[in-house]
């Protein structure tokens, strides 16, 4: 039986392979199984595509999530930042803050991680 745990293993394995065709087949399998809107699987699919540099598919997978959780937001921010699309990554980070998923405390760890990733990607040329 294909449950979310088995499917997560498939998505993780495909991510490690780096084969886009296998990733697309895994995504299709998740879709056909009816688990597409599972937050952990959805985040895994976003990560899987981002590891392959396929930002279009990563974004489409993110958009398919009805209510993206913090892990999903982190995956899409990381996807864009790691491919050098820092402005787009920061746009997602700003949108994330508007969702209420991050507590308004200024010292929340996630409040620092995304801007630091973008700053590092820019080569530390300006302040975060």
UniProtKB/TrEMBL annotation:
It comes from the Eukaryota. This is Pentatricopeptide repeat-containing protein. Coiled coil: none annotated. InterPro entries: PPR_At4g14850-like_plant, PPR_rpt, TPR-like_helical_dom_sf. The keyword Repeat applies. Pfam families: PPR (PF01535). GO terms for molecular function: RNA binding. Gene3D superfamilies: Tetratricopeptide repeat domain. NCBIfam families: PPR. The keyword Endoplasmic reticulum does not apply. PPR repeats lie at residues 69-103. The lineage of its organism: Eukaryota, Viridiplantae, Streptophyta, Embryophyta, Tracheophyta. Keywords: Repeat.
């Amino acid at each position: 039986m294909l449950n979310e745990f088995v499917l997560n293993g498939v998505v993780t394995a495909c991510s490690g392979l780096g084969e886009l065709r296998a990733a697309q087949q895994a995504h299709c399998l998740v879709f056909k199984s009816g688990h597409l809107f599972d937050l952990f699987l959805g985040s895994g699919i976003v990560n899987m595509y981002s590891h392959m540099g396929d930002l279009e598919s990563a974004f489409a997978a993110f958009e398919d999530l009805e209510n993206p959780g913090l892990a999903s937001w982190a995956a899409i921010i990381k996807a864009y930042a790691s491919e050098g699309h820092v402005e787009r990554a920061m746009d997602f980070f700003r949108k994330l803050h508007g969702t209420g998923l991050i507590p308004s405390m200024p010292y929340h760890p996630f409040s620092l991680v995304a801007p630091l990733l973008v700053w590092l990607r820019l080569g530390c040329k300006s302040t975060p």
